[in-house]
Design brief:
The chain is α+β, with helices and mostly antiparallel strands. It is built from ten helices and 13 strands. α3 packs across α4 and α7 packs across α8. It starts with a strand and ends with a strand.
């Protein structure tokens, strides 16, 4: 059985208070009267206290902005991709080093890189091979543009590699710089997105060696709520990537979660009572509350997810690994962990792990 044997995380240098980001948004967007009232309400209800970014601008006042300029002109896609290429590699290396402290880098047989916020070729995978001194004939795979659930999709690929060859050691690294894609807009969906997203990186090591300590991978299950295609999307534009995240998403998740969980549990012939820990992607406070209501859980059941949301916001793909790291390192409970994340489509990807 494949196992996650270690998880590492990293965040950029700049930690911003949510109240300071709110002030930046008010200054940058120059909102109409309706949004002047709406923006503070959304920020205060977000459940977020701090978020990280590769940019210092979000804690600065107008006149001190660097990347976005004093008038918050929208940088072109090229400038945003240059920022990704400059910052993503160092952040990824930091997360990987936090992950593989006790592992010889030369023992790694596979590398899976995950991102939806920066694309280039040669890309992050080849940069990491060079920076870390990985084997140049390492098996490499890139998971791109899948959004917040992509880490679990990458785990599914890693699990397949390890089941095919139990000697495999697969390194997964998820790195997202969501804040480089800030859009100056008074559109409600854009404002909602601006309350949530942040930058971060997480790495995990998966092996096929049953003797290893770690989180055993038991069961994957995913489904798509096709009605939500327009409610969560991620598209390229000349001024960066455009996120659509409508207020209808939590309702869709609430409608689908019970079926998703039951179908996953049925494949293992276990019940909800057999789940000891819950790792829910904190896509937003309303999403966590929707999962609670759908499954009859309490806020304490999702304590780890709320904690990551409060301190880091939504970092897209690395976020669920931040949650799993808390459970892996801090929880004394043994037994099954149900992890689930959501993304464009509307896609819901889940895995059952055993500690």
């Amino acid at each position: 059985m494949s196992k996650i044997v270690s998880i590492g995380t990293a965040t950029p240098a700049f930690c911003h208070q949510q109240k300071d980001i709110m002030q930046f948004m008010l200054d940058a967007n120059n909102p109409d009267e309706k949004n002047k009232k709406l923006i503070p309400i959304l920020y205060h209800r977000s459940g977020i206290e701090t978020r990280y970014s590769v940019f210092e601008d979000f804690s600065k006042i107008r006149g001190q902005w660097n990347f976005f300029g004093n008038n918050c002109t929208m940088p072109p896609l090229e400038a945003r991709m240059n920022s990704f290429n400059d910052a993503a590699i160092a952040l990824s290396v930091e997360a990987i080093k936090d992950c593989i402290k006790d592992t010889d880098i030369q023992e790694i047989t596979h590398l899976i890189t995950v991102t939806c916020t920066g694309l280039s070729a040669p890309g992050l995978d080849i940069q990491l091979i060079q920076q870390l001194g990985l084997s140049t004939n390492i098996v490499r795979t890139s998971v791109n543009f899948m959004g917040c659930y992509a880490a679990l999709h990458a785990l599914k690929i890693a699990d397949a590699f390890c089941r095919a060859d139990t000697n495999s050691k697969v390194l997964v690294v998820c790195t997202e710089l969501c804040t480089i894609h800030f859009q100056k807009s008074n559109d409600t969906d854009a404002i909602l997105s601006s309350t949530l997203f942040a930058d971060g990186s997480a790495a995990c090591l998966i092996t096929g060696n049953d003797a290893s300590e770690g989180l055993s991978i038991r069961q994957f299950y995913s489904q798509i709520a096709l009605d939500g295609q327009k409610d969560m999307s991620w598209r390229l534009s000349s001024t960066g990537f455009l996120m659509t995240l409508s207020s209808y998403v939590p309702k869709l998740i609430k409608e689908e979660m019970k079926h998703l969980l039951k179908a996953s549990l049925d494949k293992l012939q276990i019940n909800q009572a057999d789940i000891n820990e819950w790792a829910v992607h904190p896509g937003g406070k309303n999403i966590l509350e929707a999962v609670e209501n759908a499954l009859g859980l309490s806020a304490s059941d999702l304590e780890n997810s709320y904690d990551i949301l409060r301190n880091y916001g939504n970092m897209s793909s690395p976020t669920i690994l931040f949650v799993l790291k808390k459970i892996f390192e801090n929880s004394q409970q043994k037994g099954n962990i149900f992890a689930v994340a959501f993304g464009p489509g509307l896609t819901m990807e889940s895995v059952i792990l055993e500690k």
